[in-house]
Design goal:
Radius of gyration: 17 Å
Shape: globular
Order of helices and strands: HEHHEEHHEEEEEEEEE
CATH superfamily of one domain: q2cbj1_9rhob like domain
Number of helices: 5
Structural class: alpha+beta
CATH class of one domain: Mainly Beta
Strand order of the largest sheet: 1-9-5-12-4-2-3
Largest sheet: 7 strands, antiparallel
Distance between the termini: 50 Å
Strand content: 25-35%
Number of strands: 12
CATH architecture of one domain: Sandwich
CATH topology of one domain: Jelly Rolls
Length: about 260
Amino acid sequence: MTIFFHPPFLANPAELVSVLQDQGHAVIDAQAVETLSACPAPALAAWRPFWANLPSDNFLKDGGRYRKRRHSCFVVNGAQLTQVAHRAHWQPLEYNALHGGMQRLFEPMDSALVSQAAWQHLLLWLGQVCSGLKGSQPWYVEAHQFRIDTTNGIGRPTPEGAHRDGVDMVAVFLVDRQGVKGGETRVFEAAGPNGQRFTLTEPWSLLLLDDARVVHETTPIQPLQPLQPVQADGAATYRDTLVITLRARGFQEDAP
């Protein structure tokens, strides 16, 4: 039997920014995402196939084959969304002890997805949330499609462990999970003793994080029925997420 720890508190959509200000993170359900972002549920559901063809992440230092991903970058400036030239993803070692300091160039997201009106609505809404939290300004956005599968019996959504991302806000959308146990989200105060643990199970439910105030991680996943053969590509058992980060004053760069 699989036990899920449900989020202890679903934020009232009308009070989302105040909840983020109060506790540094917030969880909202899929209906609230649909309402606040003006992205109809059928449009979000129709994105699921875009996670079926993600290329392998060839930068995993633990030698794993469990992560597939795509990555693209944008700028949100008020009501304007601009996709920028494709660029590498970079984080300092301060925020990612395992993969920091590396220029990791992933395949870009499919243009058939990022050209959709719903995609623009989603990112513009997140920019509004971030401006409500941090003050109105341009936001430098990195979008990551992840599939964590159980090709070798276990998949690690956050192989770097509990971490911050070095940005202003992190948005973690659960897209889908199939045939797996685990994948528990853990959020801790960066400068305090308090923490919470829960499992996102509803497609398009959302965890928002004030990256300056909390650290987060997701526990490994395993097949629900480990005695059954796992497909060679792990396609039968996986956890799909969309992670979007927003940062003021530019993208993180490998600079002194």
